[in-house]
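Interim report, section 4.2 (structural modelling).
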Amino acid sequence: MNSIFLKACRGEATERTPVWFMRQAGRYMAEYRAIRAQKTMLQVINSPELSAEVTLQPINTFGFDAAIIFSDILPPLQGMGLDLEFVKGKGPVIYNPLRENKQIDLLATPPAEESMQGTLDAIGLVSAELTPRNIPLIGFCGAPFTLAAYAVEGSGSKNYAHVKSLMYSEPAAWDRLMNKLVTVMTDYLLKQAQAGASALQIFDSWAGAALGKLEYAEYVDPYNRALIAAVKRRTDVPIIYFGLGTTLYMDVVRENGADVYGVDWKLPLSEAWESLGDNKAIQGNLDPIALLAPWRELKHRIDIVLDQADGRNGHIFNLGHGILPQTPIENVQRTVDYIRERTSN
Amino acid sequence: MNSIFLKACRGEATERTPVWFMRQAGRYMAEYRAIRAQKTMLQVINSPELSAEVTLQPINTFGFDAAIIFSDILPPLQGMGLDLEFVKGKGPVIYNPLRENKQIDLLATPPAEESMQGTLDAIGLVSAELTPRNIPLIGFCGAPFTLAAYAVEGSGSKNYAHVKSLMYSEPAAWDRLMNKLVTVMTDYLLKQAQAGASALQIFDSWAGAALGKLEYAEYVDPYNRALIAAVKRRTDVPIIYFGLGTTLYMDVVRENGADVYGVDWKLPLSEAWESLGDNKAIQGNLDPIALLAPWRELKHRIDIVLDQADGRNGHIFNLGHGILPQTPIENVQRTVDYIRERTSN
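Predicted structure of the assembly:
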């Protein structure tokens, strides 16, 4: 496959700027809501047919240039021994959060098939459908820190006190936990590539909110590097690292070995490229809130992103964070169409 | 008064590094919890005697080099017409959030005495107590964006969709709202200085979480500049700007006219000074979570902050965010003592 998305991941010239949106398979689409009205999050994730259907909905409706498999970063923790539920109106909860070193020692490191067979099968179904159409499918996982934070906090957190206390106070236990996560995620990403994913995104959703530059460099970055290096030893699919809120220390992040860096909506892309170096590909970074604005304002904000990218090779248009459930679908369509039109050679 | 805190605010040499902690009057102290067990947040804020007592507790217990008046950034919104309550376990709620332009037009801009007399009187009581002891008292307010965000969202927000939609979609209404907030906060800060505050801190708690660099520069920074300039025309007390999460665009923030910049715990102070210029004073930036760690690790993290400050004039030691309720008080005392000892000439 040689789609414009994959070319952009490799920093090659493309005939126009590829576009996809984080959480593009999601609640802003009526077709998605119809399925979720009948099924829980984990039921959809565990069903290859339903995940595949949901993954394809935005591709068929809006014509995005890449699909991302419908799943979540947390279910792989179940195979390690964590008791996960997505609670309506509250989000994911882990009922046995890691609060004792002994719990860390007891965590299993099973192969991905054990808890993620549904997602691997869904990848097979979607890639069988999309490969003939030359549309790539992105697999993904959570970054070790973000997964550790969830496993230790047990739910969303305001200040990450438990996980940071562990990190600061028990560096040896921290290292064991992070190494186990690297092991499990390496296997999971490789299995996704084998199953048909032609790019892999690592979501570090919490590192930037939780950690300063020095802490990120000391306690997080080595494990991101280890994960990326381990995957790269066994596959050549491009790896995208999206560290929400980490642009403050891009000089550390840029060394982790990824091919593409997701940039959140806080930093203008021109400055992101200055920090990253022109030879890196960048994915981003329209503010998802802009999709709620009237077209005139929305277009203005799309133009800012495209002006900053300035036609560089290696720009993948995306949002700077996941699309919001209240996004009007006509704004999504108009945005995708406008980006295609404006960037076509 | 010529305390080491005020000297540091002006960038002058001091015999040692002054230290105070954001939220130093707060739930980590048993004396504070005893009062709050009997009284609501607003009752304490509205009582000059209780606010004064709570303000003085950490000064008398730990020997901080500055007091900050016990209050909150939101009560001034009440005088403008917003219906505020601090709901136990949930935080502040505004029952009539701004969702229509007409509501913005109806907001009042009364003088500070109307809703904040309790705080102004408390400042009088505390400064009468502390001036003879040569300990300065800091007054404060919320920055216009952070207050607007609360007024529009009505409570804590994950993505600030309402306030950013207003900002993007209705720039004229946004300008009217922000100007009203500048008017009210200018008056409130000046009245606090008149009542006895010898420094003034502006808390921009949400700007960095909500806004990218371009949006901050366009929709927020002009109003911070207007507020700071208006206050500076009428008083020479130093102004501290603390924009949580705004260090990513320090090159914009540093031009707003403040004398001191609060730096959150994400950016090493040496890099903060690089962005700000050596002639600015900096307040920060120990991670509050470090205060939960064993002394060996806590000391290591204090040393990092002091090493980065490297004895520069204009360093005020503080946390990078408010102290956490679960902080052991012995760690607070040991931290204050250690900073005094290590930085004394």
